[in-house]
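Notebook entry, structure prediction.
Reason for the run: the old model in the group folder had no record of what sequence produced it. Starting over properly, with the input documented here first.
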Amino acid sequence: MTIYPLLTFLWSLFIVIAACTSDAYIFMFDQVVKFSFITDPTFSDLLITSDINPSNEFYLIQKTGHIISFGILYILHLLWMKRAGIAFISTCIFAAFSEVLQLYFNRNGRLFDVGIDIFGILLTFIICKFIVSNVLNTRIIHSK
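New structure, fully documented this time:
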């Protein structure tokens, strides 16, 4: 039995908890988890871009967290599924799901953040491809 499905589930759960806790700052710095559920979110909030603030240090930390979190999730999906395309698509779908889910927990779900997540997934995909191709080329060269 492989451990990758379990690790993927646990990492996904961590992302959901981080995404849905009512205060990202307190979650990150004080490790406090609080939820505030709302039943009728405003889905048009997904389109808001006026809160993009790359000069804010906390904002940059959050977006770096998006890139790293979804890069790790892609690697876990890849190790579990053994197919890069399916791992890529399933991780992208989860990224979109997590942003929509935030709207139900009084958080700022944004399509822009889905783009940040997909950037992290794509960057990890490219790095994995590069590593695999170099390992294969090295093995082929050394086997001759």
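Summary: Residues 9 and 91 are 12 Å apart (CA to CA).
The old model has been moved to the deprecated folder.
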